[in-house]
Design brief:
Layout lengths: L1 E6 L8 E7 L2 E7 L12 H4 L1 H5 L9 E4 L2 E4 L2 H19 L4 E5 L12 H8 L4 E3 L1 H4 L2 H10 L7 E2 L5 E5 L3 H4 L9 H11 L1 E5 L12 E3 L6 H14 L4 H7 E2 L1 H8 L4 H8 L3 H14 L3 E4 L1 H4 L4 H14 L9 E2 L8 H4 L29 H6 L5 E5 L3 H4 L3 H8 L4 E6 L11 E4 L8 E2 L10 E2 L1 E2 L12 H12 L12 H5 L10 H6 L4 E2 L17 E2 L3 H9 L8 E3 L26 E3 L1 H6 L7 E5 L4 E8 L7 E3 L30 E2 L1 E4 L6
Parallel strand pairs: 6-7, 6-15, 9-10, 9-13, 10-11, 12-22, 15-16, 16-17, 23-27, 24-26
Antiparallel strand pairs: 1-2, 2-3, 4-5, 4-17, 8-14, 18-20, 19-21, 23-28, 24-27, 25-26, 25-29
Family: Belongs to the prokaryotic molybdopterin-containing oxidoreductase family.
Protein name: Molybdopterin-dependent oxidoreductase
Pfam families: Molybdop_Fe4S4, Molybdopterin, Molydop_binding
């Protein structure tokens, strides 16, 4: 029996773990108490790493679709067939007819991120990822305000007033920032000052808060707008604004309409609640605000995100201790190297010219249109499950069947692998070496190396190996060294700008940390040394922003024992598996004659689903939720890929008007 160190990559928290290995089997996984970042913390998902590694639906051999089913083949045959199909498509339609989709599981794994280089070498702009599924408002506003789309703020751990809007880190561990031991940090925020949670549901995080505001979905912009308006009249940090911020006059004019009366009408909060909110901000002076998918998936995401930046600015909280913390990253080391201001917006795909590309990729909303139009003929899927991640499920199912090839690289079977023409088994987390690159979305500035806990079994291969073999067959330079024989060879160049070399990080058995958090560095690298709040296209959206007035709105929520589509089969907690249901306030359910456990139908103008009803009195009246990540009860059948924000490419997934009815008879 051996104890071997690694870290979990189910999410970007990257908790350090210790795996117990007996005769090549992983028999237990626990948190690493010696790691200075996560200090032994691990959630139920991380603790299930061993079970996931030995998943009964684990992919072990390459297969190809023949005669209506998957047939086992040798690697050489699979790769030869894929490259031949690629050459045919490129010759007939050009390289843009081959696309790629990267799923969320690919993000925390350094060596998987080589797939973008492969697509660039191929010369195809048809790149998609989950960035445009739940978070595109963040890079859009970061780019406009700082010149860098990959700048992300997070609440400083030492904040005296923290405001969490539409986010539940107790369950999700964060959104565009990742929080180890979330309950402990929430308690700390509450004990050292105030913790406000703004959410239509009294969530697990709200239970730890000093104050909860049960806001109406999609109205967050009105609450933030009123707070900015009130502070500009009394309580703004004018010294900070004059020294570091541009566009204050534009913001002042934009928020003038958010009177107390208008804010109360939009948010459905009482005037007293809103007044208390503003008074608490004035008292605190410096504040830390963070918005989650409850905001980013809604119709007014861009407007609310701009005002989230503005609220930090008027309180002098940007890049200040106790305010909005900007981790420069141990690997990126931005405080030392800075960045060049860029505009990553570009033309959209031919079938959706109304949608811009951003960050070198098209919005996922356009994927189904591109296939239907015949512009996209072949698709690679890297560690993703598009059928339960992307909108407009029924159209997508039909579209995937039209592709000349669908190559899926993954560790287990999913709802999407059923449609693959080529199914390629890849190394799992514990079969690959890795290094933390995304610490800039963590409260600590660090990196950490994980060796392979076990060698890849059966015929599983690293994604970098698969792409290198395809590059060789296609005669392109995919950016992967021909001499690479290990994950380390692929990752070493990724640390060229880091605060320590790859070899130094690798040699440290636990996280390699900086001495503390870095503050007050951003203005040295901002264009003209100033934050720019004058974003005309978003200010125009703010001027037109309004709330949904339907009686019932659908909002998303995450669950404790699964991450998006991963582990939705209950493997993380077989005794209490997360299930798909329609959660709503009991009083609302009674209006439709529904009882707990009975079945109801939820419908939109796009589709309908049926599921068991779950009573939850923590929801405000009029708000209903169905979790995402399930194949059999897929909330995305209710969404419309054509209902898309023109600036970010985001499909509205939250605050959707719905109809509810009792299901008298089960849908077959």
């Amino acid at each position: 029996m051996e104890k071997r160190r690694s870290f979990c990559r189910f999410c970007g928290t990257n908790c350090a773990v210790i795996a117990t290995v007996e005769d090549g089997e992983i028999t237990a996984v626990c948190g690493d108490p010696d790691d200075p970042v996560t200090q032994g913390y691990i959630c139920t998902k991380g603790a299930s790493l061993g079970h996931f590694h030995h998943h009964p639906a684990r992919l072990n051999h390459p297969t190809m679709l023949r005669g209506g089913g998957q047939v086992r083949v040798e690697w050489t045959e699979a790769l030869d067939d894929i490259s031949a199909r690629m050459r045919t498509i490129v010759e007939r339609y050009g390289p843009s007819a081959i696309g790629a989709y990267g799923g969320t599981p690919a993000v925390p794994c350094a060596s998987i991120n080589v797939w973008r280089g492969f697509m660039a070498a191929l010369g195809s702009p048809s790149v998609y990822s989950t960035v445009s599924v739940d978070v595109p408002c963040i890079p859009l506003l970061s780019e406009r305000i700082t010149g860098n789309p990959m700048i992300a703020s997070q609440p400083d751990p030492d904040a005296c007033m923290t405001i969490l809007i539409g986010i539940n880190p107790v369950v999700s561990h964060g959104h565009v920032y990742f929080l180890p031991a979330p309950k402990a940090q929430l308690r700390r925020w509450a004990e050292q000052g105030e913790l406000w949670v703004v959410d239509p549901r009294r969530s697990e995080s709200a239970e730890a808060a000093t104050r909860h505001l049960a806001i109406w979905p999609g109205s967050e912009y009105a609450l933030l707008g009123h707070a900015v308006r009130a502070l500009l009249r009394e309580g703004a940090d004018w010294d900070f604004l004059e020294r570091y911020v541009s566009g204050v006059d534009a913001i002042r004019a934009a928020v003038e309409r958010f009177t107390l009366e208008d804010a109360a009408a939009a948010t459905r909060l009482s005037p007293e609640e809103i007044t208390d909110f503003v008074s608490a901000i004035r008292k605190a002076g410096r504040i830390a605000v963070h918005c989650g998918t409850g905001v980013s998936m809604g119709r007014n995401a861009n407007a609310a995100t701009l005002l989230h930046w503005a609220l930090h600015a008027v309180t002098g909280s940007l890049d200040r201790k106790g305010g909005a913390y900007f981790n420069p990253g141990f690997a990126r080391n931005l405080s030392e190297h800075g960045w060049t201001a860029v505009n990553t917006s570009g033309p959209g795909p031919a079938s959706r010219p109304d949608l811009p590309s951003r960050l070198g990729e098209y919005p996922c909303a356009a994927l189904v249109d591109e296939i239907e139009a015949g512009n996209l003929r072949g698709l690679f899927v890297f560690a993703g499950n598009p059928l339960i991640a992307l909108p407009d499920t029924q159209r997508l199912v039909r579209a995937l069947g039209k592709l000349d090839f669908l190559v899926m690289m993954d560790v287990v079977e999913t709802a999407s692998t059923l449609f693959a023409t080529h199914l390629l088994p890849t190394s799992g987390q514990l079969e690959m070496a890795d290094v933390v690159l995304w610490d800039f979305m963590n409260p600590a500035e660090y990196s950490r190396y994980a060796p392979r806990v076990v060698e890849p079994a059966f015929e599983r291969r690293p994604i970098w190996w698969i792409l290198r073999e395809l590059s060789r067959r296609l005669g392109i330079d995919g950016g992967i060294d021909d001499a690479a024989s290990h994950d380390d060879d692929v990752m070493r160049p990724m640390l060229n700008s880091a605060r320590a070399s790859f070899d130094v990080i690798k040699a440290n058995p636990v996280a390699q940390m900086s001495e503390g958090r870095t503050y007050g560095w951003m203005h040295r690298h901002l264009p003209s040394g100033r934050w720019n709040l004058e974003v005309p296209e978003v200010l125009d959206q703010l001027a037109k922003a309004c709330v949904e007035t339907a009686d019932f709105l659908l909002i998303p929520h995450r669950q404790k024992n699964k991450l998006n589509g991963q582990m939705s089969d209950g493997i993380a907690n077989p005794r209490r598996p997360d299930k798909a249901s329609i959660s709503m306030h009991p009083a609302d359910a009674l209006l439709f004659g529904l009882h707990e456990g009975g079945r109801a139908r939820v419908s939109t103008t796009k589709g309908m689903l049926e599921a068991p009803v779950r009573f939850d009195s923590r929801y405000r009246r009029g708000v209903v939720s169905v979790p995402h990540g399930f194949g059999h009860i897929n909330v995305n059948v209710l969404t419309d890929a054509r209902s898309t924000d023109p600036l970010s490419g985001m499909v509205q997934l939250g605050g959707i008007p719905i109809q509810i009815e009792k299901a008298e008879h089960a849908v077959v």
